[in-house]
Fold this sequence. Notes:
Layout: H1 17-23, E1 29-34, H2 49-58, E2 59-68, H3 72-89, E3 94-101, E4 109-116, H4 124-131, H5 141-148, H6 152-158
Parallel strand pairs: 1-2
Antiparallel strand pairs: 2-4, 3-4
Helix pairs in contact: 3-6
Amino acid sequence: MVESNNDPRAELLFADGVKWVDDAPDESIDVLIIDSTDPVGPAEGLFKTDFLKRCHRILKSGGVMVQQSESPLYHTGSIIRELRNDMLEAGFDSVATLPFPQPVYPSGWWSVTLAGKAIDVNAFREQAAANHALPLEYYSVEAHRGALALPPFMRKAFAVE
């Protein structure tokens, strides 16, 4: 992974994320990844509509935001559902939550929620795969579709058909 830290297409920042987003130019970012602490105390604002609107402002059309979104087992009906709703209220066109195993956390299961600006995050990898023939050994469109599949209790909580 160290090699990817030197990729000229990416910039890793360890800074005050709120200030950085506030100072960033409009529509200047392709992908915004927020791996914050839990949404309490100083990080609480990173999960609210006001901050998400500012993230939407700096994303380019076709841009994607990814936010860690807590445990599906403990927070589907509260934090995750509220984050999804706040992302849509902030102006994002689509949202998708991806649950995944994470054995170091208490529930053993965690999630990230994606939000797209002028792009459907439920299909953007399929669109990219159709446009680029990459020689991949592990990733496939089918594997990505599987990652987007929500268990019934999450589908019900998000009112996803």
